[in-house]
Amino acid sequence: MWRAALPLFVLWFVAGCGSMATRVGFYEPIVAQARAGGYDSVVVGLEKARKDKQYGEKDRVVYFVDAGLAYHYAGRFDTSNVRLNDAENAAEELFTKSISKAALSLVLNDNALDYSGEDYEILYTNLVKALNYLERDNFEDAFVEIRRANLKLDLLEQKYAAAAQAFQRGAEKDKDSVKIDYEAKPVRFHNSAFARWLSMHMYAASGKYSDADLDRDLLRNAFETQPFIYGFSPPETRYESDSGGVLSVVALAGLAPVKQALELRIRTDKDLDLVQVMYTDPQLGETEYGHIPLDVSEDYYFDFAIPQLVDRPSQIARIEVYANGEHVGQLALLEDVGAVARETFEAKKSLIYLRSVARAIAKGLVAHKQKEEVDTGGLGGWLKKAAIDVITDVTENADLRCARLLPGRIFVGDFVLAPGQYDLSVEFFDQVGQRLGGQVYSGYQITAERLNLIEAVSLQ
């Protein structure tokens, strides 16, 4: 009996290893150090995790993005750009490959495939690279990164139309797959206010005020046309003054959302030709997540999971700026990275959902047939059927890979100061006014002829 069941248990073991459920436990001390401001320790932790193979080769985009951010926070801007360049290049290569391998995603758990990054992750690699170049007064390369970010937003709609076509072609080629029609969801995010704010100031510092005016208008347009991202008032901006220089401050605050598994169940109805997807709502109990008209031969019940974005609350309620000990002003929210993440993930999430449903149904039907074939009764038959159920479940873990060190919100402020040398500080406060930390810039020289830009970070 045990010899008969052994091959199934070996198959279960191999499937469990191959599916590679997302490993996130090693991130906990790294994220804790990041929240505490220990960015050098974060760099050490990430490099050790890579050396210890916590990141597989298929997870390299995640490592590159988080390492690039960690080096940026630690003030190691050149190394940050190396890692972020690696992230962008790998993401482009792997997404192209994923299109050609679309059929594989119909049979393999997404965790077993190369991770090509989320659109919002790669968008912010360009914008953080722009900040890195500005730290080196390299406007030319900073402008290149802003243009790349804007181009990515312009092409998002086209990108997911191509992904939808590849999904359909993959399903048609695979005779065992479940055929579900997929139409790409429209991508509504097309204009980043943060990208416009940066280029506006760079143009003004270069004396190109008509270009700066255009970017200021595009920044306002981002708020007017995308209220689902910018559901708050735009900050006041200025890039020139007759009475002095303009100090521009950008603050990266909190942490962006991460992925968690949403456990779902498929229930088929052969009489209604319907696939119903259910989940357990904490308040309402079993609730329908969605349904798909589909010709099914039997009534089945399968489990599967998909990723969903979950916010990580921040303690930061306000950010104040001081010059020589005197209050200059308060920073205003410019971009909610979490809102950008949710909006850009939505197009991909619908594809993941339908792909996961198709895969779960196909695997469930195969599992059902296998259980009928091994239905020999007794303990041996029970063990074989239990092993088949385990194999089916273990290969349907949600892919939870994502960058864990992206900031959650971006604040900015523009303040007029007389030319001269200042001791500047940016202070972070919580809801009750308790100071959470800050950054000091001693002897900073304000002039009317250059970009006076400082950056502060608190991931609390």
Number of domains: 1
Q: Approximately how much helix is present in the residues? A: 40-55%
- Strand order in space, largest sheet: 8-9-1-12
Identify low-pLDDT runs: 1-19, 385-392
Separation of termini?
56 Å
Q: How many DSSP E strands? A: 12
Order of helices and strands: HHHHHHHHHEEEEEEEEHHEEEE
Which shape, going by the Cα principal axes?
elongated
Structural class comes to alpha+beta
- State the major sheet: 4 strands, mixed
Q: What proportion of the residues form beta strands (DSSP E)?
A: 15-25%
Rg value:
25 Å
The helix tally amounts to 11
Residue-averaged pLDDT, rounded?
85
SSE inventory with pairings:
Elements: H1 2-19, H2 27-35, H3 39-51, H4 60-73, H5 77-100, H6 119-135, H7 139-173, H8 193-205, H9 209-225, E1 245-255, E2 258-269, E3 274-281, E4 285-293, E5 301-310, E6 318-323, E7 326-330, E8 332-336, H10 337-373, H11 378-394, E9 407-417, E10 420-429, E11 435-446, E12 452-458
Helix pairs in contact: 1-11, 2-3, 3-4, 4-5, 4-6, 5-6, 6-7, 7-8, 7-10, 8-9, 10-11
How would you explain this protein's 3D organization?
It is built from eleven helices and twelve strands. Helix 1 packs parallel to helix 11 (378-394). The termini are far apart. It has a four-stranded mixed beta sheet with strand order 8-9-1-12. It has a four-stranded antiparallel beta sheet with strand order 4-3-2-5. The protein has a four-stranded antiparallel beta sheet with strand order 7-6-10-11, with no helix packed on it. It is α+β, with helices and mostly antiparallel strands and 460 residues long. It is 47% helix and 23% strand. It has one domain (2-458). It has helices spanning 2-19, 27-35, 39-51, 60-73, 77-100, 119-135, 139-173, 193-205, 209-225, 337-373, 378-394, and strands at residues 245-255, 258-269, 274-281, 285-293, 301-310, 318-323, 326-330, 332-336, 407-417, 420-429, 435-446, 452-458.
